Amino acid sequence: MRIAVDAMGGDKAPEVTVKGALLAAAEINGEIILIGQKDAIEREMASQKNIPSNISVIHADEIIAMDEAPAVSVRRKKDSSINVAVKMVKDKKADAVVSAGNTGAVVCAASLFLKILPGIERPGISVFLPTLKGITNIGEEETKGPEFVKETFKLLEQQKGINFIGNVEGRDIYVGDCDVIVCDGFLGNVVLKVSEGLAEAFKEMLRRKLSTNIITKIGAFLSAPAFRALKKEIDYSEYGGAPLLGIDGICIIAHGGSSPNAIKNAIRVAQESVVQDVNKHIIEVINFGK
Amino acid sequence: MRIAVDAMGGDKAPEVTVKGALLAAAEINGEIILIGQKDAIEREMASQKNIPSNISVIHADEIIAMDEAPAVSVRRKKDSSINVAVKMVKDKKADAVVSAGNTGAVVCAASLFLKILPGIERPGISVFLPTLKGITNIGEEETKGPEFVKETFKLLEQQKGINFIGNVEGRDIYVGDCDVIVCDGFLGNVVLKVSEGLAEAFKEMLRRKLSTNIITKIGAFLSAPAFRALKKEIDYSEYGGAPLLGIDGICIIAHGGSSPNAIKNAIRVAQESVVQDVNKHIIEVINFGK
Fold first, then answer.
1. Confidence class of residue A136 from pLDDT cuts 50, 70 and 90?
2. How buried is B117 (Cβ within 10 angstroms: 0-12 exposed, 13-18 middle, 19+ buried)?
3. Using the beta-carbon criterion (under 8 Å), do B190 and A205 form an inter-chain contact?
4. Does the ipTM exceed 0.90?
5. What is the pTM assigned to this prediction?
6. Nearest to A187 among B190, B195, B196 (CB)
7. Which of residues 145 through 174 in chain B touch A, CB cutoff 8 A?
8. Nearest residue, CB atoms, A222 vs list B172, B173, B215
9. Residue B248 to residues A158, B104, B139: CA-CA distances in angstroms?
C-alpha cells in the first residue's frame, strides 16, 4: 500500500501536510510518499523528530495556488504537486492520492489523468456530516441548476437497490433520516461552509454567554467534558477527507484548512478506500441498476 | 395605521396567526385586519379572552396551500386570503400586509397587484440573521445561476453609496463582518434552512452530552441562564418577518412555522417599515446610484 500525499496543498502547506503524514506513517501499514518542493518538505521534516522509514519524498517543482482557475492551472503547471501526485496513481506508483489543495484542480487532474469509471459521466465528492443519528454522506456534483435537480430525481426514482426518499430540505440534513444526500457542488459547498461558520459562531456565542457571571462560569467548568465530547463529535478533522467518487483510482480531498490530524485521517480514509476496493462496489452498483 | 394579516397562512393557521395578531394588537398603535375564512377565524378568536377593539376580520373564501404552485394558485384562487390581503394594500385599505403563507404565492401576488418600484426589476426577500457582531441582513433574489452572480458583482462594484466588499463564503456569514449579504433565493433558502436544522441538531447534541453524568447535569443546570440567553438571541421568531423589498407597498413574509410570537414580531416589522417609509429610502438610493 502506497499513498501519495500532495505536500503543497492546503492553507498551511507543507507544514501541516508533513505533520499529518508523519502522524499517519506511525499508524498505517504502508508507505507514504510526499509530493512537492523537496527543499521545503525536507526543511519541515528536519524540524520533526523520529522520521519513520515508511515516508519518502518525490520532488514536484510547481504549486497550484488555492485560488487558481482549476482547468487552466492543471493544464499549464504540468509539474505541479497535484498533477505529479495524481499521476503516481495513474502510473501505479501509488494506490491512492490525498490532497488538501485547490479542490477544483484536484477534481480536474483526477478526471484528466485517472479517467472516469465506465457508466459515470462526471465524478462527485462525498463528504461525511455528523447528524443526530450518526453520519450522513453528502454527494456533490458540478452545478447544473434546478432542471438538473429534477432530472436527477427521475433517475434516482428509477434506480434499483436504493431506498430513495425524495427531496429533502436543508433543515432535514442534520436530523439524520437519510444516509446519503445528493446535491450539486455549489450547493454542497454552501451547506458545508455555512455549517462550519454557524458551528463556530455558535461556539463563540455560547462561550460569551457562559462568561456572563460566576454561576454560569462554574456551570461551564462542570459541563466542560460534555462540550469537549460534542466538539470531537462534530469536528470534521475527525472524519478525514472526502472521497472523489467516480474516477478510476482512489483520490481523497481534504479541507484546505486541515489540521495535521485531519490530514492523518484523510490518509486513513485513503487506506480504507483501497482496502475496501470502493471502485469495485461502485461498478457493481452501476451494473446492478441497469 | 392598518395592517392586513393573512390569517390562513402558515403551518398552523389560523390558530397561530390569530394568537399572534392578538399579541400584536395589544402592543401596536393601529388596527389589525385578519383576512381569511371568517368562521374559522372567529372560532379561534372565541377561544381567546379579551379581544382588543383594534382587531377585525375580513372574509376570504379560498386558501393557497403551502405547497401549491405559486403563479398558478395566485391567478386561479382570486378570493384566496393571500390575494385579498395583498389587494387591501393596493386599494389603500391597509398600509402593510403580513403573511406566513406560501412564500412564492406571496411574492407573486405582491408583484402582480402592488407592482414593482420604478428602477427595480424583481423583488427580493430580506432576512435578518444573528451574527457574532449583531444582525446581518441576507437579501435573496430569484435563482439565476452562477453567471447571474458575476453580473451582480459588477453592478454592486459600480454602485455608489455602499461599501461593497466582494464575495463572501458561507463560513463568513455568521462572523458578522458584512451588514448585508446578497444571494439568489434558492441559495438563501438553503442557508436559512441548513442554519435552522444545524442549530436544532446542535441543541439536541449538546443536550445529550450534558445528560452524560451528574456532574455535567449540574453544570447544565448552572449554565441554564446562558443557554436561555443564547436561545433568545438566535431565535428567528424574535426578529419577526422578512420584508419583501422592491414592491410598491409594505409586505412582510413570515416563516411558515412561525409561533404566535413570530407573527407578533412580523406585524411589528410591518409597522416599523410603514413608520420608517422604507420604500422612500429605496427609491432615494436607486436614484443616488444613477
1. confident
2. middle
3. no
4. no
5. 0.81
6. B190
7. 145-146, 169-174
8. B215
9. 46, 17, 17
